Amino acid sequence: MIGISIPLGQIQLQSTSIMRSDSWLGVELRHFLALEAVAREGSFGRAANALGYTQSAVSQQVATLERIVGHRLVDRPGGPKPVSLTDAGRLLLTHADAITARVAAAQADLIALSEGQAGPLRVGVYQSVGQRILPEVMRRFLDGWPQVRVTLTESADDEELLGLVERGELDLTFADLPLTDGPFDSIELMRDPYVLAVPADSPLANRDTPPTLREVAGLDLIGQKHCRTLKHVETSFRRPLHFVFMSDHNQTVQAMVATGVGNALVPQLTMNPEDETTRLLELPKVPPRRISIAWHRDRYRAPAAQAFAETAQEVCAELELELQPVAA
After folding, report:
1. Shared domain check, 175 and 296
2. Quick check: is 67 in a domain?
3. Checking DSSP bridges between strand 119-125 and strand 278-282, what pairing results, if any?
4. 109 and 30 in one domain?
5. Rounded to whole angstroms, how far apart are CA atoms 295 and 186?
6. Is the pLDDT of residue 16 over 50?
7. Nearest-CA neighbor of 223 among 186, 270, 177?
């Protein structure tokens, strides 16, 4: 019998503890607001006026809170004397202040989210955009939208990024025009001219005129492996181009040019114009790469996404004007 009585007592104590904990589930935010107003105003009548309630409603909310927590929270001296909080009331009020502050913060966050001022913004990028365009876009955008959390996904293949937009895994992506088939809308950001990157000591680097398309077609060329616009560029030439090396890494492409592996047919933004081991030659008859930012046309585009696209437009318009003319 003795062995049985101990666990039964334990079970009874645990049950009582659970029941007391559950009773607190009846606490509501309005109870805390009423307690805070009474403490601040010193009377139930003034607290009611401050909250826009009747005095009886405030009294009832405080009484309900006292019943739930099992403590007297307010001293009610009666007459003209002001009411005041008990020790238990002051202790509870410290927690109530934190709770009401968190609720106010949550309300502000939800308002900001609904207005597109907070929450995640998922953006796809590829290397040349990430290196030459994105840093300034991010700086300006985050200055104006500090609550938005931008997450970036980089890929050498903008077709992959457009697929992520189609599946709802990205909100926006940088991409070359024309876009692949799909439910996309876009805005053109800038035109990035194609250049021929040659070794600094190449005879082509010392000419006064740019190489002709026929001359370019006769060279050993280096290109970017996943650049869709290169396929469109190739149509400008009347003969097949001979690529000896393909890479998606811009620095690798330029380094291979410098060592004499070949000459790179690439968009200007992919090359470092300060690299003294290579020269960038103008190709006026080759169509430029057209950089855009794209989104899913059938999905809601939050104000933050629209603002990001507009910021990208501004930055790219300035960058296009600042592109240094390459050698003729």
Report:
1. yes
2. yes
3. unpaired
4. yes
5. 6
6. no
7. 270
Phi-psi category of residue 303: left, alpha or beta, with phi > 0 → left and psi -120 to 50 → alpha: alpha
pLDDT tens, position by position, 209-260: 999 999 999 999 999 988 888 888 888 888 899 999 999 999 999 999 999 9
Q: Which residue from 226, 234, 229 is spatially nearest to 253, judged by alpha carbons?
A: 226
Q: How much is the pTM?
A: 0.68
User: How many CA atoms are closer than 13 Å to the CA of 268, on its beta-carbon side?
Assistant: 25
Structural contact between residues 124 and 172, judged by C-beta atoms closer than 8 angstroms: yes
CATH number of the CATH domain containing 84:
1.10.10.10
Asked if residue 153 is part of any domain, the answer here is: yes
Q: What is the DSSP letter of 172?
A: E
Examine the domain organization and report whether 123 and 110 are in the same domain: no
Domain containing 250 equals 194-287
Residue pLDDT, tens place only, 116-146: 677 889 999 998 898 899 999 999 999 999 9
Sheet holding 119-125, edge to edge: 148-154, 119-125, 172-177, 289-296, 184-192
On whether both 168 and 314 belong to a single domain, the answer is yes
